Each structure stands twice: as structure tokens, then as C-alpha cells.
Amino acid sequence: MKQVVFITGISSGFGNRIAVLLSSKGYSVYGTSRKDVIVGSAITVLKADVTDADSIKSAVEKVIQKEGHIDILINNAGMGISGAIEDFSLEDIKLQMGTNVMGVVNTIQAILPSMRSRKKGLIMNVSSIGGLMGLPFQGFYSASKYAVEGLSEALRMELKEFNIKVVVIEPGDFSTNFTANRKFVANATTTSAYKHQFVKSIAAIEKDENGGLSPDFLAKKVCKIIESKNPYHRYIISTLEQKFAVVLKAILPDSLFFKILASHYGIK
After folding, report:
1. Residue 136: how many CB atoms within 10 A of its CB?
2. Of these residues, 82, 145, 194, 201, which one is catalytic?
3. Catalytic one of 11, 23, 33, 82
4. Contact 75, 32 (CB under 8 A)
5. Nearest by Cα to 233 from 163, 172, 165, 171
6. Choice among 30, 141, 194, 235 that is catalytic
7. Is-catalytic flag, 24?
8. pTM of the prediction?
9. Segments forming the whole domain that contains residue 100
10. How many structural domains comprise the chain?
């Protein structure tokens, strides 16, 4: 019997490449997108918005009605808003946290009853290395990914008796359309008191992203994790340099680590 996979945010980037690879390996793949897209002839795209709980619940119900169950959930949908924390409007904060945090919650809550009834399943939440360390002018993005980390740790323990595994994926910099789709607070480069630092930091961030790994690399790693009988709770998927940064954060004094990190992003 084919395993059924439900992926949020399938139109491009990680979600798209994961969907295509899993479909080629014989999985029954369903994915959500806010717009009408065609990903592949064997992939079913459901129009849904992760920030709308009813929308996601309806999409999940359609899959369960057709397949009877969902084996694997990949919470991939996400977005980023850049700017100084002081400059974020309430609307900016709601959009960032609503997509990256409540989107994960909405999808998990919609799928868990089915997984619990079968006492079987795998939930993969896409976080970020930015969920392991705060990044300048990415404060609310980092906060949203820190939230995904905490939710995933709690969920792992809560679902143990139901034999549902929880895995966190922590990508580093990848060359995807995430860079082009990044949003900015209204006054980031005009009237903000932080505009000069912001411009330098964003230039460094975008340089890292544009020179980053291919999303196909991450898709292959995700496939291997799915095929593993006993996956780890978290996987950092990045260059060795970025993995080393996570190690440095754990062993260096905060004052030294954040001095190094700030310098990388053009903050002296």
C-alpha cells in the first residue's frame, strides 16, 4: 500500500521539490497551495491557506475521504518578514507568526485525530537554523521558528503513546524563491533608524541564500529521513560552516558568539 503524504506549501521551494521526489518514489502526494498550481501529474494540489484553520481542515478531510488516512505530514509552508523589531507593525507580526506558527498548529490539529486512531504516523516540521539562534533583522522570523522548535519537542513527548514520530528539519541557507518572496517592514530602507545596518545585513543574508544549497539536496535528505525506521528528532540540513555555527553557539560565551555573528551580518 502506498504511503500517503500531506505537504503544506507545495507551489515552490522545498515543498515543491519534496513533493516531486516522493511522488517519483511511489508515494501518494497531496499538497496545499494558496494559488492554483500544477506540480506534477501524479500530485494532487489542494487550494488552502494554512492560516485558515477551516481551509486546512477541509483539505485534510478530502485526502482522508479518498485515501482513508494520512501517513506523513510535512509542515513546510512558511514566509519571512525582515526589519528591525521596533519597526514591526502588529499586522506584520500577525502575518509572520500566523503563517509560521499557527499554520503548523492548524495542520497538526487537523491531521492528528486520524493518526491517533491508527496509532501510526510521522510529522515533519520545517524549522530553520534561524530557530536555533536569533538573526538580526529577522527577529520575528527567528521567534516563529523557535516556537516551532518548542512545539515540536512538546509534541514529540505527547504523541509517544500513539506511536507518532515528530521530526524537526532545520535548513540553513538554500537557493530558493524564499529570497525573492521575502517581505520587508514598511520603512525598512527609508525612515527607519536602523536603515543603514538593515541594508548591510540583508545584503549579507541574500548573498548567503543565493549562494546556498539546492532545494533538491534537502528533498533527498527528507526522503532518507522518511525511509528511516527510527529517525532522530532534529536534523540540521546545511553546509558544514553553518552546522559549525550551531556548535559554536553551544560552546562559546554569548558575548563572543554574538560578536562573530553580528560581524558576519555587517554589524560592528
Report:
1. 24
2. 145
3. 11
4. no
5. 165
6. 141
7. no
8. 0.95
9. 4-264
10. 1
